[in-house]
Specification:
By secondary structure, this protein is α/β, with parallel strands linked by helices. The chain contains seven helices and four strands. The protein has one domain: Phosphoenolpyruvate-binding domains (TIM Barrel, Alpha-Beta Barrel). The longest helix is centred in the middle third of the chain and has 17 residues. GO terms for molecular function: catalytic activity; metal ion binding.
Length: 147
């Protein structure tokens, strides 16, 4: 048995597809007065649909670090290529939605939740490149649309 409390900064919610589960997680953190923040991983069309339909209260957003997009799983769910127009459009939508909510957006096609160093590297890298990622996606989507 552990004598010490385990300390952590984030709680990862993989394959977010239910607004109910997300709201329960936020309410749990609020009632416990927890300082940890949620990282929401969007890996499916249903997850994309659900996350963009939630009306977040300002106090709820204090418990969310950001949105990760599991691009490999998303493209597999949509039965298309990872660089397809629809996947890029969803990434753009989620990047803009995260910016609107003032939370982080991370496109992490190589994300491995079981590799702690990889998680840390991905978080650190994308916290500093959110604007660049959104602009790249927008530019690529615009080029695809013009073609």
């Amino acid at each position: 048995m552990l004598d010490k409390k385990v300390k952590f900064d984030y709680i990862v919610l993989p394959k977010v597809e239910s607004s109910t589960v997300l709201k329960e997680a936020i309410n749990f953190l609020r009632t416990k007065r927890a300082t940890q923040k949620l990282i929401l991983i969007i890996e499916s069309a249903l997850g994309y649909y659900q996350i963009t339909r939630i009306k977040f209260e300002k106090e709820h957003l204090n418990h969310i670090f950001g949105l990760f997009v599991g691009t490999n799983d998303l493209s597999s769910d949509l039965n298309c290529e990872i660089e397809s127009e629809i996947v890029n459009k969803i990434k753009l939508d989620l990047a803009l939605y995260a910016k609107y909510l003032n939370i982080n957006f991370i496109d992490a096609p190589e994300f491995d939740i079981n590799n702690q160093q990889k998680v840390l590297d991905v978080c650190t890298y994308y916290v500093h490149t959110i604007k660049e990622t959104a602009l790249r996606i927008k530019h690529q989507f615009t080029l695809n649309t013009l073609n």
